[in-house]
Specification:
The structure holds two protein chains of two kinds. By secondary structure, chain A is an alpha/beta fold. Chain A has eleven helices and 14 strands. Chain A has a ten-stranded mixed beta sheet with strand order 5-4-6-7-1-8-14-13-9-10, sandwiched between helices. In chain A, strands 2-3 form a two-stranded antiparallel ribbon. Chain A has a two-stranded antiparallel ribbon with strand order 11-12. By secondary structure, chain B is of the alpha/beta class. Chain B is 32% helix and 19% strand. Chain B is built from ten helices and nine strands. A nine-stranded mixed beta sheet of chain B has the order 3-2-4-5-1-6-9-8-7, sandwiched between helices. In chain B, a hairpin with a 3-residue loop joins strand 8 and strand 9. In chain B, 60% of the residues are buried. The N terminus of chain B is likely disordered. The chains are: A alpha/beta, B alpha/beta.
Chain lengths: 372, 313
């Protein structure tokens, strides 16, 4: 059952949602020198950082709280008058604080690992704040739960959040699997080098589809979920296609109706070929010929926020009739044959957009979104 | 009545979706060194000590998980993951040793609750990077840098292909996970959901837990619930919302609190308390039993569990 998106606020390395989409259309990359950890030790020289001029301690809590407050204001939502639950998706929680503590910093209360305090303080009156740690598709998973809460009448509105701040342990893993530091993220490029992390936060407000008292930015048609149960880090085409088909089935839509994909597109040897193959099996084989764009070449991999960043880009594509290019893409990978990747801002009056998010452990979330 | 995440609003029309009632079709407790807990619970509830002791017996610590799971596949698995796998293995009634799945079941989901499972690994990785550089880090530790490793490992180990969630919301995580699982069932995203609560009690986890000034010390342990709908199972107690009905007994803060008698399983506590309630009902104790978890910082969650057929409707 669909839901209505009444607010959507971002914070990426390119800025807020307006600036992020403008930057994407212009083909801008937010990459910069790594600001968290020691590049030589980590074999990672670059990152896509949010610089808000403040200390990095508990930055994720600060960013998600700021986005949550903006979203609630933009959506004209008063949690003291309606039953509003907040769900926060994250990959890395406040594990950066654990690292700081482990390397000489102070211990902190375990409750600061999650985002209950930060979001409750930013948005007074919320009934509950629940943190779901679902790797790089966490935002898509909390979006699915939000749709279910509204469909079943358990909440009047849901504040759906996603956030991640770079951790050294994850940087070490990224640097460990490449020979030379990755220079930039190049989604779906034959010469891709690997992924880089992006700081990011997002918050959106979802209300029931029958709530017609307020203007909507977009209609969330359905989110499909699956778990590969296949490998700890490598994705499975079978698992990803199940999530895509689950979204279509829950939406009652045909593959041929999908005319734009905002892909997960991490620029890694494991994700990109698998995602292309899944798109071919589900959409192209079903009669679709979508444009396939991706944002991580411009924003880095924002992990827990990534699904909601994609969703915000999707709703702006629907509203503006324009699709941003895949920043960093020069020569499409062979597995992408048959898929159309825009390499410049492209006029495209999309009607039904598929937004992808996949995570470590094979956790897949695929959302279908259309104009309100 | 269905089982809402929060209390229904009488001013709002009820959902048009068919009501789904959720049943606890199976469960296990895997709490190492909890013999005293069985005796205390028996004395408090007037229930047979032998029944409770049998359920709580044979919980090996994480470093002896191979006695339950077999040796293969446990390398680089953290204590919280090992305890979770043991709890699921026991809830499914499997004999000792690894039992690789035949395939992936696309209608079985996993929801895990826990907050501290990978903090020791993350701390260790950070110390290694600072002391020796990133090349000294093993790529085999990579999955453990992501907090959802427990949930995805359970799915991989047992072939569970529906939704997979890792709930990390602190002291409320256990019942937040149970309610998320109920949501997955009610929304038709799964026919069966395994809910697991698991926490370790290593040095890093214990220090962070202590820094939050809890009333009771952290304990390592796990529990598992097998949730399904009453349409698919006719055995096991029924889960429902806590509003509007009075409970015969209460397990958790404000009632018999295992944290006070044994130790605080923190993010796993809600699942542990619910499995204890199921054990009590199974041993003949009257219901419904109110099950709670939480603390002053994160708030309190509560659900009702009742052995009576049709309870919670």
């Amino acid at each position: 059952m669909p839901a209505r998106l009444t607010a959507s606020e971002l914070r990426t390395c390119l800025g807020d949602g307006d600036r992020t989409f403008a930057g994407l259309l212009a083909g801008t990359s937010g990459i910069g020198p790594l600001r968290h950890g020691v590049p030589a030790a980590l074999n990672v020289a670059h990152g896509y950082h949010v610089d808000d001029g403040a200390d990095r301690a508990f930055a994720a809590s600060r960013w998600v709280a700021e986005c949550a407050a903006r979203a609630v204001a933009a959506g004209a939502l008063d949690p003291r008058r309606r039953r509003v639950v907040a769900l926060v998706g994250t990959g890395l929680r406040e594990l950066a604080a654990v690292e700081a503590y482990a390397t000489g910093g102070d211990a902190f209360g375990a409750h600061r690992l999650h985002f209950g305090d930060a979001v409750h303080t930013a948005v007074p009156g919320l009934r509950e704040v629940v943190t779901v740690s679902n790797a790089c598709s966490a935002g898509g998973h909390v979006l699915a739960l939000a749709e279910d809460l509204l469909m079943l009448g358990d909440a009047d509105a849901v504040l759906v959040c996603g956030v991640d701040a770079t951790t050294e342990s994850m940087l070490a893993m990224i640097g460990r699997v490449v020979d030379r530091p990755t220079e930039t993220v190049r989604p779906f490029d034959a010469d891709r080098q690997g992924v880089l992390l992006g700081d990011g936060a997002a918050a959106l407000v979802l209300v029931p589809d029958d709530d017609d008292t307020r203007p909507a930015l977009a209609r969330i048609v359905a989110t499909g979920l699956s778990c590969d149960a296949h490998h700890e880090t490598a994705p499975s085409v079978a698992g990803i296609t199940r999530a895509m088909r689950d979204a279509l089935a829950r939406a009652g839509r045909e593959p041929a109706e999908v005319d734009l994909v905002v892909a997960h597109g991490t620029g890694t040897a494991l994700n990109d070929p698998a995602e292309c193959e899944a798109l071919r099996q589900v959409l192209v084989s079903g009669g679709a010929d979508p444009l396939v764009t991706a944002v991580k070449g411009a924003t880095g991999h924002t992990s827990g926020a990534a699904a909601l960043v994609n969703l915000d880009v999707a709703r702006r594509c629907l509203a503006e009739g324009r699709v941003p290019p895949v920043v960093g893409l020069r020569r499409p990978l062979p597995e992408g044959t048959g898929l159309r990747f825009p390499t410049e801002a492209t006029a495209h009056p999309a009607r039904l957009v598929q937004s992808d998010a996949f995570g470590f452990g094979g956790v897949n979330a695929v959302t279908l979104v259309e104009a309100p | 009545m269905t089982s809402p995440l929060i209390a229904p609003d009488p001013t709002r029309p009820a959902s048009t979706a068919a009501p789904v009632t959720v049943r606890v079709a199976g469960w296990s407790l895997h709490l190492p060194e909890a013999d005293g807990l069985a005796a205390d619970l028996a004395a408090w509830s007037g229930t047979s000590a032998s029944r409770l002791s049998a359920t709580l017996a044979d919980a090996v610590p994480a470093d002896r998980a191979h006695q339950v799971l077999g040796r293969k596949g446990l390398l680089f698995k953290e204590p919280a993951t090992r305890l979770a796998l043991c709890a699921v293995h026991r809830a499914l009634g499997l004999p000792p040793g690894r039992h690789p799945p035949d395939g992936v079941d696309p209608r079985s989901a996993v929801v895990v609750a826990g907050n501290l499972g990978n903090v020791a690994t993350v701390a260790d990785l950070a110390r290694t990077v600072h002391a020796e550089g990133g090349r000294a880090v093993s790529p085999l530790a990579a999955p453990n840098a992501s907090s959802n490793v427990v949930a995805s490992t359970v799915a991989l180990w047992f072939g569970l292909g529906a939704a997979n969630l890792m709930v990390c919301s602190g002291a409320t995580a256990g019942l937040d996970a149970v309610r998320a699982a109920m949501l997955l069932l009610r929304a038709g995203r799964a026919d069966r959901v395994l809910v697991v609560g698991t926490e370790p009690a290593d040095e890093v986890a214990t220090e962070l837990h202590q820094a939050g000034r809890p009333a009771f010390p952290l304990r390592a342990g796990a529990a598992c619930l097998v949730l399904t709908t009453t349409a698919r199972s006719d055995t096991g107690p029924v889960l429902g919302p806590s509003g509007g009905r009075s409970a015969y007994r209460r397990i958790g803060p404000g009632g018999f609190d295992p944290a006070a008698h044994w130790g605080d399983c923190y993010g796993a506590a809600g699942v542990v308390n619910l499995a204890l309630a199921a054990t009590l009902l199974d041993a003949g104790a009257p219901g419904p039993v109110a099950v709670a978890c939480g603390d002053d910082t994160d708030g309190v969650r509560e659900l009702l569990l009742d052995a009576t057929p049709g309870a919670g409707r």
